[in-house]
Amino acid sequence: MMHRLSRRSVSATLRAATIRYRIAVASPISSSTPITDSAVGSDNNTRWYSAINGGKCNTARHSAHLNLKSGLFLGSRYESTAAASDSANLPQPPAEKYEYQAEVSRLMDLIVNSLYSNKEVFLRELISNASDALDKLRYLSVTDPQLLKDAVDLNIRIQTDKDNGIITITDSGIGMTRQELVDCLGTIAQSGTAKFLKAVKESKDAGTDNNLIGQFGVGFYSAFLVSDKVVVSTKSPKSDRQYVWEGEANASSFTIREETNPENLIPRGTRLTLYLKHDEKGFAHPERIQKLVKNYSQFVSFPIYTWQEKGITKEVEVDEDPVEANEANQDEKVEKKKTKKVVERFWDWELANETQPIWLRNPKEVTTEEYNEFYKKTFNEYSDPLASSHFTTEGEVEFRSVLYVPAVSPMGRDDIINSKTKNIRLYVKRVFISDDFDGELFPRYLSFVKGVVDSNDLPLNVSREILQESRIVRIMRKRLVRKAFDMILGISLSENKGDYETFWENFGKHLKLGCIEDRENHKRLAPLLRFFSSQSEDEMISLDEYVENMKPEQKDIYYIAADSVSSARNAPFLERLLEKDLEVLYLVDPIDEVAIQNLKSYKEKNFVDISKEDLDLGDKNEEKENVIKEAFGKTCDWIKKRLGEKVANVQISNRLSSSPCVLVSGKFGWSANMERLMKAQTVGDTSTLEFMKGRRVFEINPEHPIIGELNAAFKSNPDDEDALRAIDLLYDAALVSSGYTPDNPAQLSGKIYEMMGMAISGKWSTSDVQHPVPPHTETLEAEVVEPVEAGGQK
Q1: CA-CA distance, 297 to 364, in Å (whole number)?
Q2: Where along the chain is ATP bound (predicted)?
């Protein structure tokens, strides 16, 4: 017979068995030879093992070895230790070593078609290689001046043939020998620059800074993004011969030959010739090349020249019309030769990267005009920025940056919800990497800030297009955000208040969004906020100014949310606060209320919504409140019974002075402004809306005559229909004056018309005015007449 045990019973049974077994085992083992761990060597400490094991145990093998009695056996832990000890003495079979194999054609296909997402970066990669070659030459020539014996300028030249689809890139750098061609271009992912840097670091005289760009060894193969065939002709100052490397797309082999054509010889450096694919011949247009150079390689430290068509205006003589010539002779006028202006076309080299990287200069040496000019050229702006910040960060992360605050917001103003604004241009060693970020360097609410960031420490993927998430990026983001706040704070403290007014008009919503999304920077955001107030309806004030104007006994910062300054000014919630000369902030922007609720406090002063219940103005008088509650408490219950579920409670108000009543929201409910905004949402939760609406609190002013009359009506006749209808009308009026939308406007209008009719009935009519009255007719009793047939017969 089998019994099913619960899990708890099984666990208790195992624990009890273990305890009993350990007691039974202790005696025989203590009287025999102690068991030692042979795998430990000199450690002879006795080890005790539980007999409960989870694996198989070969008791026959070890009982004789350990001289155990009465069938005692050990767990699998000791068995495995002994087995390891035995196997350690056995000779190990020799291991065979293999190298990873790669299918070259497939690897090339991955590099060309999968590594890069944008084909136009091929020019950036090839120019970077050319810049590295020039940098290597300049570095090596310090110790070996003979490398510059050919006296060729250090530059890069790009020439195009748009008819045949050919691009030629020539640099006067270090060049390559035959063996270097094999090693660098014949071995995929072997970076000659990385190899050179390693040698420089190992050398003793490596005290100079280098600006070499390459690191992955695959940039050259980006040429096959747009080319069917690539020809590399190179001449190293270390060799007397010039060699030509030639490779084709989707090929697994390449050729190297010596250059024998005198017309193709170069004094030093490398010339790349790209034979473009049929669909990519648009890259061979000179204007396209010029644009790519300015975008990606504008700040490369060596001059880049492109072959451009130019025009010069000349005046040339033209033949006169014979008829006009005869007329001129007849008039005996002085003969003048006629000319006309023509544009003469020619081709010449044009410098493409004339703008210098301003962030590499000392900030003390750069003028404001130079900063503004750099801003306009880099970001295609027409107006000067409001502020700029040029700084260098050193230490754990090193980078240079120039940041700007624009004077105007972009057209459409959609950047507040679009984090990919292309306003931050990322450079690595002066080579443009990307301007397409999804909040990695700046949060969304600071997406309006423009600038450049140049660093050598950024973790990029192999294509150098994607900024990888890392601790370095987070540190950079924190420091960039801090500098941006310093710029904005500088504008706010400027003597010219118009600058910050312009900034706030364009980017105020961004900072309010930051209050919602960036809790860590609340202390930096709050001083930058601006609002209208009950004491400053024409000019916005800061929170610091509000705190300075606070009354000595005032503990909180009061605010009210509305759709306009006029609505906020006329709200009944302000009546008592205005009497006490307490300033109230007007939140008239839809995002204001949410932003303030996220801030919660400023300088240890809590934000208080005056349209919500339990408003404390610091003037409580408990004796007076008790008297009023005793007089109007039952009246409040009577009004609550009439209104039913429309309100959560009816209370005596401490915020009213001239209005009879007001409708306030619950402490954790929506205000009238928030309810209006939530109703306007495209996708709204109606269940939540109904719940938050149920938290409305009806407050009455006991000093108002209408409330006094209702109190008297309750005491004399609580079931009077006119009194009950007055309560309904009072609620509807409070609904509108408090900013809420009535559920049934037509019904409210009917009640108003009815009350108006009662109020004005006979007020302006007099006895002199005769109203047409229908003639009075007496009521006659009907006489029953029997029917009579013709001729006097029935």
Answers
A1: 26
A2: 125, 129, 171, 176, 191-192, 215-220, 270, 464
Cβ-Cβ contacts under 8 Å for 311 (sequence gap 6 or more)? 343, 344, 345, 346
Average pLDDT for 148-169: 90
Q: Do 254 and 245 touch, CB atoms closer than 8 A? A: yes
The answer to whether the CB of 399 falls within 8 A of the CB of 393 is: yes
- Which two three-digit tokens encode residue 693? 């609406």
User: Known binding site for ATP: residues?
Assistant: 125, 129, 171, 176, 191-192, 215-220, 270, 464
- Any idea what DSSP says for residue 185? I
Q: Which residue has the higher pLDDT, 645 or 101?
A: 645
The one-letter code for the residue type at 301 is S
Cα–Cα dist 343/293, whole Å? 27
Q: Are strands 156-161 and 304-317 parallel, antiparallel or unpaired?
A: parallel
Strands (E), 462-573: 530-533, 536-542, 557-561
87 pLDDT higher than 70: no
Other beta carbons within 10 angstroms of residue 441's beta carbon come to 21
**Which amino acid, one-letter code, is at 1?**
M
Reported as a single tens digit per residue, the pLDDT across 324-335 is 556 555 555 445
For the chain, state the CA radius of gyration.
45
CA distance 291 to 4: 81
CB count in 10 Å sphere of residue 488: 24
| Rounded distance between C-alpha atoms, residue 59 and residue 69, angstroms | 12
Q: 480: helix, coil or strand? A: helix
> How many C-beta atoms surround the C-beta of residue 16 within 10 A?
10
| Separation between Cα atoms, residue 443 and residue 477, nearest integer Å | 8
| Strand (E) or helix (H) holding 87 | helix 76-88
225-246 burial code (b ≥16 CB/10 A, e <16): bbbebbbbbbbbbeeeebbbbe
Known binding residues: 125, 129, 171, 176, 191-192, 215-220, 270, 464
- Structural element, H or E, at residue 701: none
DSSP 520: G
**258 three-class SS:** strand
Is-contact 460 434, C-beta < 8 A?
no
What does the mean pLDDT of the chain come to?
78
Q: How far apart are CA 139 and CA 199, in angstroms?
A: 12
Report DSSP letters for 49-66, one per residue: --S--SS---HHHHHHHH
Sign of the alpha-carbon dihedral angle for 157, 161, 165, 166: negative
- The pTM for the full model equals 0.71
pLDDT at 418: 62
CA distance 301 to 180: 25
Instruction: Examine the pLDDT at 119 and tell me if it is beyond 70.
Output: yes
Task: Answer for the pair 748, 673: CB distance below 8 angstroms, yes or no.
Answer: no
